[in-house]
C-alpha cells in the first residue's frame, strides 16, 4: 500500500459489523443493524449524497475477520442506499459460488447488487480468472450513452482469455452436476455445529463465527474480558504452524487473532471430524507453548 498511494483518500469507511466486539450486550441484532445503518446515512449526508458513488461490502467479510452481519443488516443498509441513490457493490470473491451454501452471498442476505465482483470460485483457482457482473441498471446506462461516448473501452489484452473461460465453464459444470452448493449447505451446517460444540468452551477461544463452509475462530488471552493477544506475539501464526504439524492447513488472518477455516466444498462429514481432532491437538499443543513462553496466563 505504501508504494501505491493507498488507501485512496476519497474512500470513506463506515463502521464494520462486529457481533463479538461491536454490538452492545443489551442491544438486539436488529437494533444493532439499524444503528449501523444510521451511521452510514450520517456519513453519506456529511459527505454529500451527490458525491457518493457506491457502497462496497462482502456479504460475509473474509480476511477482515470472518464477520457475519447481524440480523437485518443488509436490509437496513439497502434502505439507506435507495434513499440516496447510492449503488451497491457486492464483493463475492470469497462468498460467491457456494461458500455460504448458496450460489452467492447476495442470495443469502437479500442483497440487490448493482455490481458484483467475483473470482476464486469461477475456476476453483485452476486458472486465474475474475469477473465483474453488471446489473441491467448499469448496463442500460452504458448502452444509452454508447452513441454519444462510443465503445466502453474497459478491456485488457488478456481479458476473457478462452483457456481461462473454458476452465471456468468446466469447473462450474462440476459444481452444478455434483451439487456442491447444496453440499456446502448441508455439510457446512454440520461443520458449524460440530466446531462450536467442540471449541466454544476452550479457554483460548473467544468467539466462533461463520456460515456454510467458512469459519473464523477468534483467540483470546482472557475469555471473560475478551482481551486479545498482543500482535507482536504472532499467536495466529503459532497456531497455524501447530496445525501444519497435524496435517491441517489454516490461515491466521492479518491484523488480529482470528484463525480462518475455508474447507473445500467437497469435504465429507468424516473429514469434518478430522478437522476437529487435528485442531484440538494443535490448539492444546500451542496453548501449552504459549504458557511456557509466558505469553498466556490461564
Describe the structure in your own words.
The protein is α/β, with parallel strands linked by helices and 298 residues long. Helix content is 41%, strand content 12%. It contains 10 helices and 8 strands. It has a 4-stranded mixed sheet. A 4-stranded antiparallel sheet has the order 5-6-8-7, with helices on one face. A hairpin with a 2-residue loop joins strand 5 and strand 6. Helix 1 packs parallel to helix 2, helix 8 packs parallel to helix 10 and helix 9 crosses helix 10. It is globular, with a radius of gyration of 21 Å. The two termini are 38 Å apart. The relative contact order is 0.10.
Write the layout of secondary structure elements.
Blueprint: H1 29-47, E1 54-57, H2 73-83, E2 87-91, H3 105-109, E3 115-118, H4 120-123, E4 131-134, H5 136-144, H6 146-149, H7 162-177, H8 180-199, E5 205-211, E6 214-219, H9 235-245, E7 251-252, E8 258-261, H10 269-292
Parallel strand pairs: 1-2, 2-3
Antiparallel strand pairs: 3-4, 5-6, 6-8, 7-8
Number of helices: 10
Alpha carbon gyration radius = 21 Å
Helix percent band: 40-55%
| Cross-sheet strand order for the largest sheet | 1-2-3-4
Total beta-strand segments: 8
Mean pLDDT: 95
Largest sheet: 4 strands, mixed
Characterize the overall form: globular
By secondary-structure content and strand pairing, the structural class works out as alpha/beta
Low-pLDDT residue intervals, each spanning 5 or more residues = none
Could you tell me how far the N terminus lies from the C terminus, measured between alpha carbons in angstroms?
Answer: 38 Å
Strand content: 5-15%
- Element-by-element helix/strand order: HEHEHEHEHHHHEEHEEH
Amino acid at each position: 500500500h505504501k508504494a501505491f498511494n493507498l488507501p485512496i483518500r476519497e474512500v470513506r469507511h463506515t463502521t464494520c459489523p462486529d457481533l463479538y466486539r461491536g454490538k452492545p450486550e443489551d442491544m438486539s441484532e436488529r437494533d444493532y443493524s439499524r444503528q449501523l445503518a444510521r451511521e452510514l446515512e450520517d456519513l453519506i449526508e456529511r459527505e454529500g449524497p451527490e458525491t457518493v458513488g457506491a457502497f462496497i461490502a462482502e456479504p460475509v467479510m473474509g480476511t477482515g475477520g470472518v464477520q457475519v452481519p447481524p440480523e437485518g443488516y443488509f436490509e437496513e443498509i439497502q434502505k439507506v442506499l435507495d434513499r440516496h441513490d447510492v449503488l451497491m457493490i457486492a464483493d463475492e470473491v470469497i462468498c460467491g459460488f457456494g461458500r455460504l451454501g448458496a450460489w452467492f452471498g447476495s442470495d443469502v442476505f437479500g442483497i440487490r447488487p448493482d455490481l458484483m465482483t467475483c473470482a476464486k470460485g469461477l475456476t476453483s483457482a485452476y486458472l486465474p480468472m475474475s469477473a465483474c457482473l453488471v446489473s441491467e441498471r448499469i448496463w442500460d446506462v452504458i448502452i444509452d450513452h454508447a452513441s454519444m461516448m462510443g465503445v466502453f473501452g474497459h478491456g485488457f489484452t488478456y481479458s476473457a482469455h478462452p483457456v481461462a473461460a473454458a476452465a471456468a465453464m468446466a469447473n462450474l459444470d462440476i459444481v452444478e452436476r455434483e451439487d456442491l452448493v447444496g453440499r456446502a449447505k448441508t455439510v457446512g451446517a454440520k461443520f458449524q455445529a460440530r466446531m462450536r460444540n467442540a471449541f466454544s468452551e476452550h479457554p483460548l477461544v473467544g468467539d466462533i463465527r461463520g456460515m456454510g463452509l467458512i469459519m473464523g475462530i477468534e483467540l483470546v488471552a482472557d475469555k471473560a474480558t475478551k482481551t486479545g493477544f498482543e500482535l507482536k506475539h504472532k499467536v495466529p501464526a503459532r497456531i497455524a504452524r501447530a496445525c501444519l504439524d497435524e496435517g491441517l492447513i489454516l490461515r491466521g488472518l492479518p491484523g488480529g487473532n482470528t484463525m480462518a477455516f475455508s474447507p473445500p466444498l467437497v469435504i465429507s462429514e468424516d473429514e469434518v471430524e478430522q478437522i476437529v481432532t487435528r485442531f484440538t491437538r494443535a490448539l492444546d499443543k500451542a496453548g501449552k507453548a504459549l504458557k511456557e513462553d509466558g505469553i498466556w496466563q490461564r
